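Support case: user asked for a sample of complex input and structure output to validate their parser. Sending the pair below.
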Amino acid sequence: MKSLSEMKVSGSLAAMFCSTSITSILIGILFYVRNDPSINLTLQVYSAAGTWSGIGLYSYIIWIILWLIGYIALRGRKEVGSLRTWVIVFVLSVIIGTLIIEANLEWASLFE
Amino acid sequence: MALTSLEIVMLIHGFIASIALMAATLLIGVLMFAKELSAEDVSKLKWISVGTAFLVFVMDFLGGYGYTFYRVKVPTSARSIILATAPWAHEVAFESMEYVSLLGPLIATAIAYVVWHYEADIVKEPAVKRVLLIMLAVAILWGLALVGAGVIPTRVASVK
């Protein structure tokens, strides 16, 4: 019976955790910069859906590319960190991505 | 009063959110109570997890479809009504639901991949079981928060 830190993660699983974690934070970052005039139009891939369309589309494309690159680079490796490390990275990235979005909402509207 | 096709699409959008939360709860139940899984059980769980991940993608897509009608810049659109009556319901609740939900397919796919990767070890290996329970707990809490954020604006005005 192995503990979380003793349980090693294979290259293919690490590629999934890594690409997913980076993309979670990327979604937050793209939301943060979405109103910047230099990037706003680029993010409006489908103007009827505004920047939501570009943030979704670009993030998912980058996610797939990162996953493929990670998979090709790490697939032969049997140990790429522990399960404990990767689950911490995964959970933190979801929290960070979510908090970046939440921190950039119009919370002042609660008092209008 | 008959439902419009857009209202039906938005109902399906909501149903999928419920189905995804139920699937995650089912998986938690299996992890907590099953000691061993047959090859057939493993196969079912793999397809349930992959099917759920696919449905979460569909849910996001349907949400985006409804969003195009929601944000139309006319005084009668749901967004205009909400901004005029309860701005926070759009600025905080709706925006949270719309943008944070983009993480949903990532979380659901990660869970499905772990189930697919470890197969029967998800119940046999305590470390794997614990990791999956953590990921599922995060997914359920995160999903419930977004469902709540999504319900608030529809109480003020919904797309029709």
